[in-house]
Amino acid sequence: MRKIKIILVFIIMALLIGGCATSRGTGEMVSDIGDGATEYRDIAGQIGEGQAELGIAGARIEERSRELEQAIVRGAETIQDIRAIIQRVRTRPVNPAIIEEWRNSGAEADSGKE
């Protein structure tokens, strides 16, 4: 019985120490089948690089989005300012003599075209 226990301990130790997987420092457990494992590691590295690039691009898009939103708000404020100016101009009293002079100058300009 003791021999069986010793043999089982050796078999378990051999499996634990030798193992059938490798991580080669990347943290991923991959069966070491040669080229397949190397190809997987290369692809996993490329995916990681792509994810980093996507993160950077996402941050840039978010920043541009905020800038555009601020520009839209500033544009709306400018439109409000222009409307207020136009309203003040429309409500300002005008001398009737100036209106009559403006109408006459328009009539003279029209008569000179013929």
SSE order and pairing:
Elements: H1 2-18, E1 21-22, E2 30-31, H2 35-91, H3 96-113
Antiparallel strand pairs: 1-2
Task: Characterise this structure.
The longest helix is centred in the middle third of the chain and has 57 residues. The model has no long low-confidence stretch (mean pLDDT 80). Helices cover 81% and strands 4% of the residues. Strands 1-2 form a two-stranded antiparallel sheet. It is rod-shaped. With 114 residues, it is mainly alpha-helical. A hairpin with a 7-residue loop joins strand 1 and strand 2.
Instruction: Quote the beta fraction.
Output: under 5%
The helical percent reads: over 70%
Shape annotation: rod-shaped
Q: Which value, in Å, is the CA radius of gyration? A: 41 Å
Number of helices: 3
Give a brief description.
By secondary structure, the chain is mainly alpha-helical. 81% of the residues lie in helices and 4% in strands. A two-stranded antiparallel sheet has the order 1-2.
Notable characteristics:
114 residues; rod-shaped; two-stranded antiparallel ribbon; mainly alpha; 81% helix; single chain; 3 helices
